[in-house]
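Example record

The entry below shows one chain as it appears in the dataset: sequence first, then structure tokens.
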Amino acid sequence: MSSVIKVNACVYSRKGYGRQVNTNSFYMNGKFISEQHIDNVQASIENRGREYLFAVSDNMICQYPERDINISILKELSKYHEKITVNEGDIRSKIDELETRVNDTQRLITSVFEVNKESDEDSIPNIDFAGLLLSEGRLVALSNGQGRIYMMRDGRFRPLAADASRAKREIDNLMKEQEEDADISLPGDENKGSVVVSDIYSLKEEDSFILLSRGLYDALGEEKIEDLLALRSDSTYIAYRLIDEAMKRKFEGDLTALVVQVEKVINPQGGLARKSPVKSQPRQSKQRMQSRVDRLNKVPAVTYKYNKRKTKKIQGNLYSLIVIVSVLVLFGVLFFMLKSLVDTGKNNIPSPPATSETVEPTVTPETTPTPTPTPTPTPTPTPPAVQTHVVKRGDSMSSIARTYYGDISLVDALCKYNNISNPDTIVLGQELKIPPKEELLAQ
């Protein structure tokens, strides 16, 4: 009887910057499936079960309705998942069948594209796949192309089904070929493809996994992905942060992040899986345990590297400095307020009226005509000077118009004279020109 696994998972998928369509697709344990025609999608699950299958792929859907061609890795995964859920079998056989289905789908899509490409300039699209299978309390990962999957366990970040695993398997196969006759072909070798399968691991509580698309990896890089996966948060937040950080970089590749977290692994006997391996220790005698206790009791108390008195002194000086700065700022504000009031009073003092002088006629000494008085010219009244008003606290255009003109209906004319578009935007200390009422109305 296999173990019961409790997981929570979340996936975010967004089309890349400037892209017309999202070519990524994902499979989340059969509950949520995203086809390529969905550009932006988010989904999450929290479930308890024995079998889980997660996958992220790129360009693994090929459709030509006019030729009755419809190839999709999601359909293959759905059929495979239903089969392993109904039929029992060992995990090795499940892995082999999943690897075969992914390889066959890749070959079919590649061949269809080669036959139907319209020009020689067309190139085969990048076909990527990353899959995770949780079964019987164990896990295995599969990748193809640039599909990537990582695991975070006990604070360690490691890739699964990566290029290093591929290179190791290629070396092992090369060594086997050298030992055997090259003319002999083993049954099943013709179905081998480019899918890389990881080793089989036992599941542990608090394991975290992330399945990435090529675009998301190119945008963030492995170090940034490791930092975000190490966050002590739920899968929804981690997936959101991954996509959000990648969107800021404006990469053209499509972005998909599927985060899976293992909450509990319940063994068939009813016990919980250990979070971390604990080595068994031999029993110790009472005398040995007592000696250890005595040694621990003799350990000196913990000493601090900092001086508490010095810390309090620094805090007191800091508080004093804050009080002095606050007092200086307060005095500065009062000074500017008083200065503003004094300037306003000076500007409001009316200027004395201008005096006119009578021009006396001048008589030249050479001639002695009878002096005729010249009419005294009528002095032209000097218009009152334009006053200046400095805005102080509590002033408004209405109160200023009432003060100088006794009429608040002149607010708009006064604003126009001072080139003010909004009467509510005057600020403290602003200088306003106050012309005579006749000049204000004549503008």
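Notes for this example: DSSP finds ten helices and 17 strands in the chain. Confidence is low (pLDDT under 50) at residues 181-191, 276-284, 301-308, 355-359.
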